[in-house]
């Protein structure tokens, strides 16, 4: 009997990203509700923060550059259309991910005594476990994309449901029993080991185990600008975290900032899922028109869902935060409200077109512009008395500038106008409405508190 797919690759990847956020969000709520102190919560958040900081850029760069290279590269002939031939690209991408993981693991152990967090040298929580977690967790990020490239969208969702449910249980048990945070860290390591077994099974099924130095060079050539993009600008939350840690040197303040410095999960995950799933469709010139029409329609559908839900969330944010977490986390609400506005730049996708067309150096330039503006602007915001909320405002400004730069490049250099891939009228109306709502709430004209 033929299997009926109720989801496609885009919705499958979007669902996976949403599940990932939801699990860690539930853990954050549990830590606050089971009376862990802000300092203890700050240790857990710092563990996750540093693990992401040291791995997110190269994991993202390697995987995003794999998608347009899959079956369309100079190193391997184009594979058969029957979809049965195993992919050497996947195996070589796995080698790159493992290589970078080993480098971070080894360099981390060599230099671990020189780490400084909250003004204390070597005070990174659970440092040995941190580098082991990076070693185990980074390569397994390839799993959902193996399913994506092989059009197994329902498997993406199944994999997410199974592993994230197990992860939630194994992390929550020690929290409920009010054990030390280290036991939840052990849970992260255990589930990463399970995912490694899953990855090996997929590599045997879908990958051809053939090492190609030529493809590795080609892959790295395309990935390097994306790695730099993510490192210096594509992930401003990490830059923000470093700024807050450096200026305040207080785990409690860091916890307050981290609990607020979260983009609206639906917007972030669904936008990221749409962007990643669309990358292979922009890899050939003859599909460009159809791909732009598709991303325009898909983003329009997202806007009709995400903007109203985000505005509703903004309306209740100041009421929700002290009740969902703890009274002292009311400061985080102001940061979160600013981060909600990031839906505006998130809903346009010029970067997707550029990466799909292998113009990754342009996205790197945009990231460098972000980086050059974000740090001094954040420090100025703090100096002007806006505190950690000012850091969030700086992030919003640089994200908007970056998107405008990429849109202008597409128009000027590639003759692709914004209206060809953006539902301009819908986007402008929603952007104006959510900005107006933010101003009214921020000035207490509307106050549901």
Which regions contain 5 or more consecutive residues with pLDDT less than 50? 79-84
Strand order of the largest sheet: 1-2
The secondary-structure element order is HHHEEHHHHHHHHHHHHHHH
Tally of separate helices: 18
Strand content: under 5%
Structure description:
- By secondary structure, this protein is an all-alpha fold.
- It folds into two domains: 1-234, no CATH class; 235-449, no CATH class.
- The protein has 18 helices and two strands.
- It has helices at 9-33, 38-69, 88-111, 127-137, 143-149, 153-176, 182-206, 213-234, 236-248, 251-260, 265-278, 288-324, 330-340, 343-346, 350-356, 360-383, 387-414, 424-442, and strands spanning 116-117, 120-121.
- A two-stranded antiparallel ribbon has the order 1-2.
- The chain starts with 8 loop residues before the first helix and ends in a 7-residue tail after the last helix.
Structure characteristics:
mainly alpha, 2 strands
Short description:
The chain has 449 residues and is mainly α.
Annotate the secondary structure layout.
Blueprint: H1 9-33, H2 38-69, H3 88-111, E1 116-117, E2 120-121, H4 127-137, H5 143-149, H6 153-176, H7 182-206, H8 213-234, H9 236-248, H10 251-260, H11 265-278, H12 288-324, H13 330-340, H14 343-346, H15 350-356, H16 360-383, H17 387-414, H18 424-442
